[in-house]
Write a structure and sequence with these properties.
The protein is of the alpha+beta class. It contains 3 helices and 4 strands, in the order ββαββαα. It has helices at 32-43, 74-80, 93-107, and strands at 2-11, 16-24, 50-56, 63-71. The chain has a 4-stranded antiparallel sheet. Strand 3 (50-56) and strand 4 form a beta hairpin. The protein is elongated, with a radius of gyration of 20 Å.
């Protein structure tokens, strides 16, 4: 996998580097973990403070454009990094309780 930096800017407010990277590869498309490992190794970054935001790839293309953030410290990453969305699962307990209370109130 060949990696080149398209844009590298410092965001002092969020204590991070904002990167736009182009990755070119042969064979199958690499996974997020493989891309993260390759970018961290090439740019000498810590994987603990590195987050891939988006990977854009055209159909049939052997290259991807990656948007990523590299935080100054683990604490700043915990404070400013995007929170992962839950996949499926039950609704939040508070949201599930409200309809039950509304139905109980209608029966009276």
């Amino acid at each position: 996998m060949e990696i080149s930096i398209l844009d590298d800017s410092e965001n002092k407010l969020f204590e991070r580097r904002e990167l736009r990277i182009k990755a070119t590869y042969e064979g199958k498309t690499p996974s997020r973990d493989e891309i993260k490992e390759g970018v961290c190794k090439k740019l000498n970054l810590s994987p603990d403070t590195f987050e891939i935001i988006r990977i854009d790839q055209g159909y049939g293309m052997r290259e991807s454009e990656i948007v990523a953030h590299s935080y100054r410290s683990k604490e700043s990453m915990e404070r400013f990094a995007r929170k992962a969305k839950s996949k499926g699962g039950a609704p939040a307990p508070a949201a599930a309780a409200k309809p039950a209370e509304a139905k109980a109130g209608e029966k009276k």
